[in-house]
Each structure stands twice: as C-alpha cells, then as structure tokens.
Specification:
With about 375 residues, the protein is an alpha/beta fold. The chain has 13 helices and 19 strands. The structure holds zinc ion (ZN).
Amino acid sequence: MAKLIICVDGLGRDLISKKNTPFLYKFGKENYFSELKTLFAFTGLEYCFFTGKTPDKSGIWFEFVRSNNSIFKNVFLRFFNGKVRNYLGAFLQLLNKRSYICGLHNIPKSKMREFDSSVREGLWRLDYFQKRSFSFYKWPFFIVKNEKAGEGKIIFKYENDDERLKRLLSVKDVDVYYTQLMGVDKVIHKFGKKSEESKVALKKIDKIIEKYVSLFLQESDKNEILIWSDHGFADIGEFIDLFRYLPERKDYLYFIGGTTAHFWFENQEVKKEVLEVVKRIKSVKIINKEQAKKYKIPLDEEYGDLVTYVSKGGYFFPNFYQAKDGERFASMHGYPEDKELNGFLISNKKIPKKLKMNEIIRYIENG
Ligand SMILES: [Zn+2]
C-alpha cells in the first residue's frame, strides 16, 4: 500500500463544484470529503499538516524573520535586482546548506540584510518523511528515499503541475508520494476568484489530478489518496499604500507583506508615531496577545515589535512581494480565520467531515 498526498495550493473549499471541478467533486462524494479549517498563517500551513504543530508551537508563521546574522548580508546582493538577485539569493541559500529556498521578491536593497527566511529545512526532513520511504517533489527540490539510497535533485526548469505529478510518480515502490501544485494559486492571485482565467485553471487542475489519481489507483486499489488544499481566497476590494503613510525616520524597520506589516522600533517615540499612523487606517488591525493566542501564531520579536494585518478584502500594495504595477494581485489569502478561506481534504480513507489543519497528522500517520 502506498499513499499519494497532493497539496493543491489555493484551491479553497468553496471552489470545489460539480461544474468547475467535476472529478474532485465526484471523488469526494464517493469517498470522504472534509472541510479543512485554515489558519492565519503563510509558510506554516504545510508544516502544520505534517507535524500537527500550529505556528505558535513550530515558530513558523510568516516567511521572513528579522535576523542579526542574515545570510542575505552578502554584498553581492546589493548590486542586483529582480531575477538576478533571486538567483543569487537561491545560490546563497544552497551554499549555506539550506533545503528550503525563499525568493527575495521586492524586498528593498537597503533592508535585505536585516531579514532571513524563517524556514531553513525542507519538509522532507520532518519525521513524517524520515520514518518512511518517499518520493517528494516541492519544486525545485525533488527527493527520493528508498531502500536503495537517498537521492536528491534540484530541478532548475520551472515545472508545471502535470510535470510535477509525472516526475513524482515516476519513482516505484515507496510508502509516500508528496507534491505541491501551484498553478491554481498563481492564477487566482492574478485574476481573482470569479474570473474566466480561474475557471479554466480549475478545470485544468481537475483533469490533471484525475489522470494521475486514476493511474495510482490502477496500480493497487489499496492505495490511499489524500488531496488537500491549505487555504482558499478572498477577492481584494481595498488597496492600501502603507508607504505613503509611514514616517520618514531611520529609527525603525519594517517589513510589508501582502496582508501583514511588521515593525521593529529603536525607541518609544517612533513606536508611538507609527501606532498613530496605523490606527488611523480603518481596515488595519494590530495583533494583540489575545488574538495571537486565538489564531495560534507566535508573537515573537523576530516577527516584529508590532505586527499588524489588514482585514479580509484588504491588501497592502505595493509591498515587499508585489511592487510593480503588473504584479498587483486581484485576490488574496493570509487573513485571520474565515470560512471563505477554508481548504479541504478529500480521501478514499475515512476522515471526519470537519478537520483542523493540525489534526490531519493522526489520519496520515498509520500505514
Ligand atoms: Zn498564494
């Protein structure tokens, strides 16, 4: 018996329908379909899935943390922008033996040295995988571990979802197959939930999954299928240019993501000034201790002395990820818990109708 686990990034529970995703709809009806309560998290979702640890327990929440000894202090990074800087950044991470690679996006040159990736090890290093033989493909890392040997490869060419599943399943005789598909997330971000482009992307991913799930079940009808999504989307109705409001001072540092903004202060005076600014914007909220507890997120200094977020439908633009006009998103995730943002889990193995992200490990641990 083998397990095929597929994460379809961004395919919210509310996007599964008879019309748009006929295979997933049918497979869920004939087997088991569970609504998956998402978390107010970004990078931490897959970690939560495979460890059962929510971000407050794993410390992994947002992709970047403040760091005094960031590997991105490297002088070379200061001379380049865009794609070249991204490649250099990836190269630096590999040189430092990292098995998780983050992009450097549009983080300003002057601030890059202050931040480092919160994740440094790939998912396959987790216990869940290490206890088993596996084929793992989270682009660009394609890792195989079986009786013969452990083998890792970096795939330089960007591969689409069909190519990912093909490569993943080209390996024989392992316990677990895992990959993450990114096509849907990219399209919905860019065009919005209700766009024609998104409808086409949904139909396409449904067909691709159908093809490989059928092949996998042909090999043995005892094989287990787990298809899940980490979160859904909410279309953006409010664009907030935070840079316009922030004071021009040198005694504080900030990181502006799409839905969160993180601040570090050198003194109380600047903290007061920034607080006044953010409090004036109605849809911007400050994360307090109670909310951090409720949403199970770490309120560590490395994520900010002050962490703010925008309520559902709001979007900080420009931000450190999308800054140029053509990069502006139409739909977003990364808001506090909300039904619209929930994901799903479909399986041919019995699972409850409602599940939290940190409860799944119980259902994938056996076998
Ligand atoms: Zn996304």
